């Protein structure tokens, strides 16, 4: 057993080994036994929990949900089946699937009171702000769900409601922002198709869904379902660890996802492509700006805390983007810019030395744009896909009877004790 010797104290730290042979040193007794803490700013080297949901091998570019390869699920599963898998830990039997999808359908319509909430937002409100507010508000309409959060059926209903209504809210927020009437969900349509219907149908003009678009959207959603302890999921777990309800925890997840370094990167990537397309600068000039870190410039959609090799989701999305655009006979300028940028970066020492590869957000925006999703809704699409993952992590925290509240420590670097000086003496 590894031993840490500090001053005149000595501590034996058990080794913890995961099912995929991931190794950690358990230092949970360090402070109480020695007075020291570990310092790991931004948690680059810290395992915050044990989790049985998602496995990533960042050096080999491996991603698995509950033991199933992402490539396998993206090719063969549906979003709802994958959502069930991630939350409950196994692929649903036909009867489990029927029950789950029936529950989703029964929960898809928003309470009429939501109209008033939507009307309170300015027309140009960002849909991510609306989404997080609405998800939290959703909990107010369902107080019975929290009377006994230990009851399985309450959790099932609450989880189904979130997965179903996040899509209804997203589409409604879009419709409100463009001044069109909200379109109600259609119970016979499947998840992704129903979303497209709510986004793009008009009262007397139903949206005709293209099967290639539907396939691409379903794949996009499956690829975003979970990604272990990323920023938004860690946020959900942190909030959940205080005993907060599912809606409040997932609402916090939406806020964490919004930032440009996380889910907001999918919007930032397309903004970057657009700048190059509009000839603000060439691909080469832009890469030079990034290497010089000019005004903090980054190649958005590149790099990852865990992947030091290809992000497998980026590879799947790259192929899907080509397939979608080739089939539609579209010569997409953004895809060409993406290819040129990737080609340039992947052969450049700056990116090679730092092991920076395309991540999930590099190609996803091209697909979303081909589907017809407006730019400011890109991160909302990520949130719709990620919802089952957040729910699974909330459940993992809530099901653990030994769960303690998340509460990191710090090394204080501020002033030492000083005496208060009254205003007239300053
Ligand atoms: N462009 C240019 N340089 C980069 C990039 C990038 N996209 N990413 C990392 N680097 C550089 C850093 O500046 C740093 O350089 P240095 O050694 O000279 O200081 C080095 O690579 C190491 O990077 P870190 O910042 O330590 O990496 P970290 O793990 O903290 O950050 C992150 C990961 C946030 C994803 C980062 O790579 C990034 O900002 N990428 C662009 C934004 C993005 O695409 N985010 C989406 C991530 S996927 C997701 O969340 C869904």
Short description:
This protein is mainly α. The protein has helices at 30-34, 70-76, 79-88, 94-106, 114-119, 127-140, 152-177, 191-200, 211-223, 231-241, 246-258, 265-277, 283-291, 312-327, 333-346, 349-353, 360-371, 378-398; strands at residues 3-6, 9-12, 15-17, 23-25, 54-57, 62-65, 68-69. The strands form 3 sheets. The protein has a 3-stranded antiparallel beta sheet.
Task: Give structural notes.
- The protein is mostly helical and 426 residues long.
- Helix content is 51%, strand content 6%.
- It contains 18 helices and seven strands.
- The chain has helices at residues 30-34, 70-76, 79-88, 94-106, 114-119, 127-140, 152-177, 191-200, 211-223, 231-241, 246-258, 265-277, 283-291, 312-327, 333-346, 349-353, 360-371, 378-398; strands spanning 3-6, 9-12, 15-17, 23-25, 54-57, 62-65, 68-69.
- The strands form three sheets. Strands 5-6-7 form a three-stranded antiparallel β-sheet. It has a two-stranded antiparallel sheet with strand order 1-2.
- α7 (152-177) runs antiparallel to α18 (378-398), α9 (211-223) packs antiparallel against α14 and α9 (211-223) packs antiparallel against α17.
- It is globular and about 80 Å long.
- The model has no long low-confidence stretch (mean pLDDT 93).
- Residues 230, 261-263, 265, 290, 298-305, 354, 356, 359-361 line the site of acetyl coenzyme *A.
């Amino acid at each position: 057993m590894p031993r840490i010797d500090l001053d005149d104290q000595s501590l034996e730290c058990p080794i913890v080994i995961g099912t995929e042979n991931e190794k950690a040193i358990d230092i949970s007794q360090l402070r109480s036994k020695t007075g020291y803490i570990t310092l790991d700013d931004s948690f680059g080297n810290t395992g915050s929990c044990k989790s049985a949901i998602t496995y990533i091998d960042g050096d080999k570019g491996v991603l698995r949900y509950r033991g199933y390869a992402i490539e396998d699920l993206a090719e063969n599963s549906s979003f709802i089946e994958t959502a069930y898998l991630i939350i409950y830990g196994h692929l649903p039997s036909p009867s489990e699937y029927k029950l789950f999808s029936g529950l989703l359908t029964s929960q898809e319509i928003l309470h009429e009171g939501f109209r008033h909430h939507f009307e309170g937002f300015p027309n140009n409100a960002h849909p991510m702000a609306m989404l997080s507010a609405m998800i939290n508000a959703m909990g107010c309409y369902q107080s019975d769900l929290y009377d006994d959060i230990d009851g399985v059926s309450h959790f099932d209903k609450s989880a189904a409601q979130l997965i179903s209504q996040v899509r209804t809210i997203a589409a409604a927020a879009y419709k409100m922002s463009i001044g069109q009437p909200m379109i109600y969900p259609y119970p016979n349509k499947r998840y992704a198709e129903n979303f497209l219907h709510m986004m793009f149908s008009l009262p007397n003009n139903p949206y005709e869904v293209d099967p290639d678009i539907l396939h691409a959207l379903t794949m996009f959603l499956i690829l975003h379902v979970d990604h272990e302890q990323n920023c938004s999921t860690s946020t959900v777990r942190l909030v959940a660890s205080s005993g907060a309800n599912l809606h409040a925890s997932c609402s916090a997840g939406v806020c964490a996802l919004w930032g440009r370094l996380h889910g907001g990167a999918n919007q930032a990537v397309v903004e970057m492509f657009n700048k190059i397309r509009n000839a603000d600068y060439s691909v080469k000039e832009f890469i030079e700006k990034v290497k010089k870190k000019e005004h903090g410039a980054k190649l958005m959609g590149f790099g990852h805390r865990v992947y030091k090799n290809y992000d497998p989701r980026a590879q799947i999305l790259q192929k899907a983007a080509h397939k979608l655009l080739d089939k539609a006979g579209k010569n997409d300028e953004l895809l060409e810019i993406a290819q040129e940028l990737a080609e340039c970066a992947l052969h450049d020492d700056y990116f090679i030395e730092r092991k920076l590869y395309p991540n999930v957000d590099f190609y996803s925006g091209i697909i979303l744009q081909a589907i017809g999703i407006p730019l400011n809704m890109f991160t909302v699409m990520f949130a719709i896909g990620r919802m089952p993952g957040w729910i699974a992590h909330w459940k993992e925290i809530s099901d653990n009877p030994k769960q303690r509240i998340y509460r990191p420590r710090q090394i204080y670097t501020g002033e030492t004790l000083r005496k208060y000086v009254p205003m007239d003496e300053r």
